[in-house]
Amino acid sequence: MSQFYLCSKNHSIVGQMDTYLAFHRDGDTNHYNHRDNHHPSHRHHNKTPNADDRINEKPFSTTFNPTFPSVQNLSEESTRPNYLNNSPTSPYHLGRDVPSDEALNKIKTANSVTISPELFEKIYLNPQKEVKGELRQTFGNPTPLALLGFLLSLSPLSCELMGWRGAGGDGIATVGAYYFIGGFLMSLGGVLEFFLGNTFSFVVFCSFGGFWFTLGATLTPAFNAYGEYATDPNNIATGLTSPSFHASFGFFLLFMGLLSLIYLICALRTNLAFVAIFFGLLMTFVVLTASYWHFAAGHLVMAQKLQVAAGAFGFMAVMAGWWIFFAQMLASVDFPYEIPVGDISRLITPLSERVKQKERFSA
């Protein structure tokens, strides 16, 4: 009686195994054939057990789970190993189409991630904004180009304002860089940011491109900007030392400081490197305005000290700019190491999330 019960039990279990093996042979043949090519030890699964094998098989009552997986679960590619690459797809690879919120959540929980240049630019350089179209996949990131124009113009000007190695002349020596590097490259980068849908970068780069064009034109004798203030008609260069010229040009620098303040507030949604850049620019324009006005009032010693201080703040801004430019270039070539830029994009809750939270609570 007990022998009949054990035999019945074994045949019942073998029947379940036949169903399970038949299911895999019919529904997932390619998967097993591929596995058998790599694992010869598993080739016996393709053979249907005969009667002798069934008698010699051990009971599976403690190891076999008769609950079979569903067809839907077995047909999903995400549940199978990626045999084409011989390794499973990493859950921490962040492509260019990954939303910023999802990417930030993965970054917070991962020890290391692979991040594309497009996603890097989306997270660290611009507010999180969805853009339609395929332009991001077609064209390169114009941000490093605009940053380069900014750096190669302000870096020498800051050194000139501080008087390093006897430099001076209010930046006249590098007036060509204001046109062809600062003005041209920043304006070009701003226009390209416009086509990519990056409003913040577009406005910042184009506005400072216009600043460099304006500064270059002011210092170019052909525009006669300071010639009208010359005390000697035969020497228009005396207009650069005219109190009226300094008092007038100071207003332009003052409102550039106001523009930098607005950018500084907006930069709180980006990263610490951008915050340092705009803070340095804000202080540069404000202190330089005070220097010009002190010069117009005849306080030459104080004006000179303020000019050096303005150059120091500008140098601080360009150091932060060189840092973020370096981070951009490393990301553009998929360098195995990356430098932090101090992401603070989640420090201030976006307006869109506030609206969603309000709608959720009201509902």
Automatic annotation (TrEMBL):
Its main location: membrane. It is a multi-pass membrane protein. The chain crosses the membrane at residues 145-164, 176-195, 202-225, 245-265, 272-294, 306-326. Keywords: Membrane, Transmembrane, Transmembrane helix. One of its GO terms (cellular component) is plasma membrane. It is found in: Membrane. InterPro entries: AceTr (IPR051633), Gpr1/Fun34/SatP-like (IPR000791). Residues 31-59, 67-86 are annotated as: Disordered. GO terms for molecular function: acetate transmembrane transporter activity. PANTHER family: ACCUMULATION OF DYADS PROTEIN 2-RELATED, PROTEIN ALCS. Belongs to the acetate uptake transporter (AceTr) (TC 2.A.96) family. This is GPR1/FUN34/YaaH-class plasma membrane protein. It comes from Lepraria neglecta.
